[in-house]
What does this fold into?
Amino acid sequence: MSGLITLEHLRFGYAADRPMVLPDLSLEIPPGTVTAILGPNGAGKTTLLHLVLGLLAPQGGVVRIAGRPLAEYGRRELSRQIALVPQAEHIPFDFTVLEYVLLGRSPYLGMLEMPGPADYRVAQEALALLGLPDFAARPVTALSGGERQMAALARALAQEARILLLDEPTSHLDLSNKGRLLQTLRVLAGRGTTIVFTTHDPEMAVLAAQYVVLMRAGEIVDLGPIETVMTADRLTATYGTPVQVVRVDERPVVLLDPAGLGSAGG
Amino acid sequence: MTTTALRPRPSVAALLAGLGLTLVAVLVLSIFFGRYPVPYWIPPDLLFTDDMAQRLVLGLRLPRLIVSLALGMSLAAAGTVMQMIFRNPLVEPGFLGVTQGAAFGAALSILFLGSSLLVVQGVATFFALAGLALSYLLARYMRFGGWVLRLVLAGIAVSALFSSGVGVLKYLADPLTQLPEITFWLLGGLWGVTWRDVWIVLPVVIPGLLIVYLMRWRLNLLSLNDETAFSLGTAPGRERTVLLVAAVATTAAVTAIAGIVGWVGLIVPHLARRLTGANAQHTLPAAMLIGGMFAVICDDLARALLPGEIPLGILTALFGALLFIILMVRTTLRVQS
It folds into this structure.
């Protein structure tokens, strides 16, 4: 297998009496690539990330990281391989941003160990890479949703994992933070980090990813390089609503197709 | 280069050292504080000349001081652990059925198994754990509200169940022999503590506090979303269980000696966070030191302020509630649901 992350015939459902979220999913993600999991809400994107993370155990099939089944990894070992930026994080206590980012060093600390100077350095480098060094002393609870997401990204960077999973990373970001996120993802990709993120926003997929996986109702509609997959008919099939793809400077831009929506929308 | 230090603020280390020294001073002063031979002070030289003063200090005051210190540290540590693990700054051991469970266990044991301290302590510990488990399960099966709300509601319901159980046991108890013992439980107090109590309580409290103290960085991780805590290498279920059992065991051990002493576990972690910030690496030792100080000072007042003993639980509730009101009015208490 050449994929760094390999999913083989994954089956997953949250409860036996409810339909499977992922009936049968296979996917291979090569190392050093940026992949977008694109699809409407409820397509099973977050479930897919949680399966790769090992937080959820599949009812059938296997997840492999670097060829080894996920179940063979120890908790600490795996957390050095895979970092996660969750969709929204509720933090009930007012850690400073630096303390919060430092939590990302935990995979390198023993069960009873406290972070040392080297860990503080890595945490501050992560903040600097995101352009947030001034945030270090601010309480996380005082940050806006977007700033908090950037802090979560900094925490994931401090983890120094070779795989970075992001769940709807742009959901709370304004344009400047979105730009900052894209830039950071490029730097990380340049360093060889394998990045997988979910999004329901086609623009984010086009801007950040090389590969895209179109998902709908737990099934893969199509996958491949951006240029070949982001077509009007495939996106229409994915979202179940008429979609147009126009080109701006060779870059595909995805728009709702007003002609196909009927008269109600004007 | 930024101006932020590469290490935790030195002020935190200085603060902890200051708290530690203050606690030592409070302990030393407490040895001399009392009502013999006159209120409120034993002249130190009396310890070498007066046989009665010597026996009083070594036989009664010292063990009581040690137990009150253990009590305050345990309740504060348990409060910090529970607030962080349940991701709710409003929980304390008493809110989750632990204290009322322990009281019920103690009353049950006094009524049916005799008042041997070891038995009372064992039964109290069992019901303290049962109270926590019941609250937790009830919160999981409740069908409305967020996790925090459900947990608080479940804790209130379970505590009320145990407390009505205590009421029934009080009704059944012999009013001359058993009832006073049970009543003692409900008010909370450390009169009559001897070295025997010290030897019973310390073997539980020391390892329990040590586990919590050593795992304090993990506590930070466990206060995050499950998915984040997991991605950072924790086994959230297992590690939460270890910390909770340590916290509840120490709470049950001191509660078995002292009865219900409320508010320490709720208010002290808030005070500690005000001083050191939310990072449990610093909050936990600060809470333990402040909790020890709080309980020792309250117990000093309980035994020496008036000619008769004031139940400790009344004093901790009084000062705890006052502090709580001050913190709330000054809006430093951040609560998100």
Observations:
- The first helix of chain B runs from residue 10 to 32.
- The first strand of chain B starts at residue 33 and ends at 34.
